[in-house]
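#lab-general

N.A. 3:47 PM
ok so I finally got the sequence cleaned up, no stray characters, all 257 residues accounted for. can someone with queue access submit it? mine expired

B.Y. 3:52 PM
send it over

N.A. 3:53 PM
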Amino acid sequence: MIAHFAADSWTMTRRELSRWARMPWQVLVGLVFPVMMLLMFAYLMGGGRGVTGDYLTYLMPGILALTVAFGLEATMTNLTQDLNKGVIDRFRSLPMASSAVLVGRSLADMLQSAVSLLVLAGVGAALGWRWEGGAAAFLAGFGLLLLMRFAMLWIGIHLALLAGRAELVQAVQILVWPVGFLSTAFASPTAMPGWLGAVVPWNPLSATATAVRDLGGLDTGGGWAADHAVLLAVGWPLLLLAVFFPLAVGRFRALSR
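B.Y. 4:20 PM
back already:
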């Protein structure tokens, strides 16, 4: 049974990957947007407030963390389009594991996210960013980024199933922006108003960005959240998955009722 589920999931993954060939602009946008963000904040915004030392070294982990939060719109839109066109209903009528539809979509999204992170890291290296934490720490940081992406993905899937229509997805995607910018991605909490500087380090994206900075050899200590960033970078995604994964699966199963 596990073999059949794996085969069904891989079939759905290949279906999602085939979209890349039919709509390469979606992949291109997913790759270019984070790079544009990096260039804009590194060279046009005049450096980050409260950041000492090389700003690019501080900025890169923040942009990497933001990358795993942004870009869910394509996945959410494709899912709602399949719902409205009856594609998912047809899949559910076939002799296949119904959950393979969501698993296949999530695997394709994770693959695209990994490519996007690697491209962004390559551009950062070309601009002068250097990783000082060693190979093992780099893999650990990359894993934390993908873990957060996986959690964000299932939030997106659940919200897409709730929205039900592609035109509502944009409104949902807009909600990601406040979460992304109210983080330590671009500026140190020490430069923020007292109450905001106390709250921002607890943002899940702040935890991931700070953990990647710590693993890369950049000391960003100051407060419990910053000192235990790796713990929070693991705990936040697991908590989000514990909430939204069953919600998404339950919502998906309820579609046929």
